[in-house]
Design brief:
Elements: H1 3-29, H2 35-45, H3 48-52, H4 75-81, H5 85-94, H6 120-134, H7 142-153, H8 156-160, H9 184-189, H10 193-202, H11 206-210, H12 212-220, H13 234-248
Helix pairs in contact: 2-6, 5-6, 7-13
Length: 252
């Protein structure tokens, strides 16, 4: 076989290897966002935060409106207008649930109807996000409720998202964000209960610390996992772990 015949094969194998290396790298670096993360992005895309405030915290004045402000997604005002998941969907699709269509509280700012612009997949993710932000996700396990309250009390949801179902951006981290507890990225980072306990108590998993590739990202990421060993008891850590396992077992 002459040189002219060899070169094409060398180039071919080089291209194949390069593509495979690139695919492996992308599989490691590309994030697999949870429904709550995607829902937040959809809310931003469709301008929901313009009126409801970021994460629906409210504050937008609405002249001539009975309640003074565009309702936030938390607290008593939200509960006045939201009965269940179907209500959320109808607010998004039609601008108002059908059961409230004859009621008018006034206000210059009106809820728009997204029926003709939002896709079914977007509606599903946005609904899950709103349920989480509104606190409408029911925890039907008493022990999981305890873990949820401990996590809430200690600020876990500020980084990992409401209910631990989303996460927030984290520049220079492996995937660019803090993973939600219910997503596939979390499962790739934490292999078992012992590692999860290690991460909560020490702020890092020893296995990742020994991995030069992982360690580089852990050290350079802007938001770092705090170590709760002097804050939480062993029992409280176990309660949080139980809640995370409960959460990962749910179908939203």
């Amino acid at each position: 076989m002459g040189k002219n015949q060899i070169y094409p094969w060398v180039i071919f194998f080089f291209v194949v290897i390069s593509i495979n290396v690139l695919l492996v790298y992308l599989s490691i670096r590309l994030p697999e966002y949870t429904p709550v993360w995607k829902g937040r992005e959809i809310a931003n895309k469709y301008g929901c935060f313009n009126c409801h405030g970021f994460e629906g915290q409210g504050g937008m004045k609405n002249p001539n409106y009975k309640y003074g402000e565009v309702p936030s997604w938390q607290g008593e005002t939200a509960m006045m207008f939201i009965v269940d998941e179907n209500d959320i969907k109808e607010w998004i699709l039609y601008g108002k649930p059908k059961r409230l269509e004859k009621i008018d509280h006034g206000g210059l700012i009106k809820m728009p109807a997204y029926e003709k612009v939002i896709s079914e997949k977007e509606l599903k993710n946005l609904t899950i996000y709103l349920k989480a932000v509104m606190g409408l996700i029911q925890i039907n396990d008493e022990k999981a409720k305890i873990g949820f309250e401990i996590a809430k009390k200690n600020g876990c949801f500020g980084c990992h998202g409401p209910y631990g179902m989303g996460g927030m951006p984290n520049p220079k981290s492996l995937k660019g964000y803090i993973p939600g507890w219910d997503g596939p990225d979390f499962a790739k980072l934490v292999k078992n209960d012992d590692e999860l306990k290690e991460w909560i108590t020490n702020g890092i998993i020893e296995r990742l610390k020994k991995n030069k590739f992982a360690k580089r990202f852990i050290e350079q990421q802007i938001v770092k996992m705090p170590a709760y060993k002097d804050v939480l008891t062993d029992e409280e850590v176990e309660e949080i772990i139980y809640y995370i396992k409960w959460l990962r077992g749910q179908k939203f």
